[in-house]
Amino acid sequence: MSVFADEPHPGLPLPILPGHVSAGRFERVLRAGHFAVTTELAPPDSADPEEVYARARLFDGAVDAINATDGSGANCHMSSVAVCALLTRIGYSPVLQISCRDRNRIAIQGEILGGAAMGVCNLLCLSGDGVQAGDHPQAKPVFDLDSTTLLATAKRLRDEARFESGRPLTSPPRLFLGGAANPFADPLDWQPWRLAQKIAAGAQFIQTQYCYDVPRLKTFLTRAEDLGLLEKVFILVGVGPLASAKSAEWIRKAVPGVHIPDAIIRRLAGAEKPKAEGRKLCVEIMQEVATLKGVHGVHLMAYKQEDAVVDMVASSGVLKGRTPWSPARSQTLIEGTSP
Amino acid sequence: MYALRLWSTRNARLLERVYDAFESALVASHPVLKAIGYQRLEKPVAAVEKLVKGALFDCQMCGACALSRTGMTCPMNCPKQLRNGPCGGVRDGGFCEVKPDMRCVWAEAYQGSLQMAKGTAIRDPGEPVDRRLQGSSSWLRVVKQRGDAKDSAAQGESAK
Ligand code: SF4
Question: Which of A51, A172, A315, B96 is the most buried (most CB within 10 A)?
Fold first, then answer.
């Protein structure tokens, strides 16, 4: 069950349960012990809200939260906070992403308040890709804060109801806070400590970089368990379908931080239908990571294959028959017919 | 200089010792420094600091020195100026996302920290940088802070 008896009209916040920090459905799903699925919405190069809704609808019934990326790859798109605000209007549960690349602490704190005022309940704090990666390499990189100090700043806004300057807020942003982790990149030994640091700074959930190397993930989780971290955080493992061996090779070279073992590339190269094979592989990884201790969900990033998300989630069976909230489902509930 | 910077990280243990000794000596001379006036010392000391740390660490004079908790590796050489560990884009083998020919500053910092006596300080979360300190002497600031703390502790003692 992820539609709750006390669901208000879409767009209005849920009551905040004891022990919860946010009024959001995503935190509820995780704290209720369900295996969660999140996905990523690529904001459009457009000022048309319908384009946002059309992209979100693709995920209906398969995901518990939708991350709206913040100038991902340092490319210019509609802002994350605006996409989130549009999504909350009709009841979706978006994850606001804020990267440190484009804004200083004044803009960031203002945006956190603004997002929360628009009904956003989840915040993912990121460093952000370097400007050299995107379509405006001539831009000024800001990086006033980093992902850890951003988390601490958001936590301070929420728990102490004050800005970094100390000036008080009249009403704090009730946000479920998240950070990223990359268990697959160097320096590997340090990554569990980096996770500990983010948790200390305020991270309550973690969405990882793409996982194509489950043994590496296992090592990371074992170390995290030794450090006593698994009880303190909800980890959602990043997964995604690779379109072909060629595109996997390209990602490996061009997208820093994504680690794809040779065996994966060989498997795609040997497949008759590489795209189908890539999806199958992704489903297998979802199923495998779902069995690991400390993993509470998957973050399915299906760039340019968004239309396959619903099918992949269904065939993975990770939701164990649970159907996440969607506007249509909510409508039937409100009208009193069974979903 | 990049080569010297890498050398400094490789010799983090040695530099940590030198640094500790140097800091204690400076703190000991706090009364003298105070008599001369920290304000008056700021410019010449900042110039020397820039020269020494510039050569050894490619120091960017952020004024909020973190070398002792970053494996004697200046984090301001990270193109994203991250102060709490690597970004998610570190390339295989520990090279930088933004400047692929450069070693990731934080991969280096981690290696340096492993040698240092107080290396685990790298795990502590650092504060956001106060950008007003850019260009100022971090040495003097730290020494003044520690010296003043000592003074007020002594005052507290004598008041009892
Ligand atoms: S790879 Fe390392 S040096 Fe380069 S931007 Fe990321 S953290 Fe900084």
Answer: B96
